[in-house]
Amino acid sequence: MSSAEGATIATDSHQRTFPHWRTNLRVLWIAQMLAMMGMGAFLPFLPLYVRQLGHLSPAQAQWWSGLIIAAPFLTAILATPLWGNIADRFGRKLVVIRAALGLGITVFLMGLAETVQQLFLLRLLQGLLSGFIAANIGFVSAETPPHRVGYALGMLQSATAAGSILGPLLGGIGSDLLGIRWTFIAVALLCLLSAALVWRYVREHYPPNSAALRPSLWAPFAFALRSSRILALLGVILVSQAAMMTIAPVLPLYLEQLHAPRRLLSTLTGIAAASSGVAIAIASPLWARSGEHRGAHWVLLTGSTLASLLYAAQALAPHYGVLILLRAATGVAVAGLLPTLYALLNRQAPEFLRSSIMALGSSATLLGNLLGPLLGSTVAIRLGMEWSFLAAALLMGMVSLALWTAPRTALHGLQRFLSRHR
């Protein structure tokens, strides 16, 4: 595709009307909340499920937990750009439905796993077939008026937060009462319900690009490599997400180390995860309003600095109750990071590559999700679980330092955009 053709498509996008975007956003909010509620119902308890599937030493359990949590991100890093390209070429609604169905099927099979090796392989398959958040982001970015994309992405973030609040609580209680395996079956049903809602109520107003203008698989990579702003944003997304995921393999085990009652360990793990989700749901709109007045750079710098300090404090927590409170405070700190970064990335993407460029952002997030748990497990095995929190603090500190020292021009686009649409 020539640059002139791309410019024409980008210009035409500003002349479009978007009659269904509000209804689509409401339905996708519900669908994403249900799917993320399902994910939250089992993801925090995977280390406990790993221990249930085999006779493993504490070190082996930590290592397998890190591998299994990270596994879907490994395959999703490769698959997400492909799904984004398919969405740009053949339709975005189809990719959203495919992602919900893929997630539901693989999670159901995880509930039938008999060994940690089987669970690992199924998590790899999950990453290959799902990618629900990435598919939703691509759809909303393309089917929403340009001046409302930031708002729409923030709403999707709140859906994720709502699912993160309810999922761990319900999953923890259900796991303690019925067993973890039944949780996987319930999650699969929620994912199927999400797919049905999207199929029935979401309307794709604009068809994919015509055959003559469909971008090649390499086109988004070539465009990103020519843009220093996109590369910088992808780097910040990667490191900040790795920091947030570093403690995932050790959280329930760390609560146990801080003398959490074993009979309530799943429930307390759910509360710790849900407290962060509550904080994100409350803090996200506050960060958005602050960004309108102070700018995207201020939101990113302040959030990453606070998160770095709070992760360090968690390493020194004297009691599991203190750790849960610090997890909630950390949710406040990180609530504005990813929505701001995705909104900035969306502003850099031309219309004909919208889903593909946003998929690259999702791949950067997934790579952080992959590297973070592996780092957390390795550090916990060699140095102790407290050091996993210190590693997260160091990564967030690196983001803060980069934002403090880097030129702000790469982050001014969203600030100018927001000032025009207050």
Figure out the total of helices.
19
* Average pLDDT reading: 81
N-to-C order of helices and strands: HHHHHHHHHHHHHHHHHHH
Helix content: over 70%
CATH architecture grouping: Up-down Bundle
Q: State the low-pLDDT regions, or none.
A: 1-15, 417-422
The CATH topology assignment is Growth Hormone, Chain: A
Task: Describe the protein's architecture and organization.
- Helices cover 80% and strands 0% of the residues.
- It has helices at 3-13, 21-42, 46-53, 58-90, 92-110, 116-129, 132-142, 149-178, 180-201, 219-225, 228-245, 251-257, 265-294, 296-315, 320-334, 337-348, 354-383, 386-405, 412-420.
- The protein is globular, with a radius of gyration of 21 Å.
- Residues 1-15 and 417-422 have low confidence and may be disordered.
Summary keywords:
single chain; 422 residues; mainly alpha; Growth Hormone, Chain: A; 19 helices; disordered N terminus; disordered C terminus
Summarize the helices and strands and which ones pair or pack.
Layout: H1 3-13, H2 21-42, H3 46-53, H4 58-90, H5 92-110, H6 116-129, H7 132-142, H8 149-178, H9 180-201, H10 219-225, H11 228-245, H12 251-257, H13 265-294, H14 296-315, H15 320-334, H16 337-348, H17 354-383, H18 386-405, H19 412-420
Helix pairs in contact: 2-7, 2-8, 2-9, 3-4, 4-5, 4-6, 4-7, 4-17, 5-6, 5-7, 5-9, 7-8, 7-17, 8-9, 8-13, 8-16, 11-16, 11-17, 11-18, 12-13, 13-14, 13-15, 14-15, 14-16, 14-18, 17-18
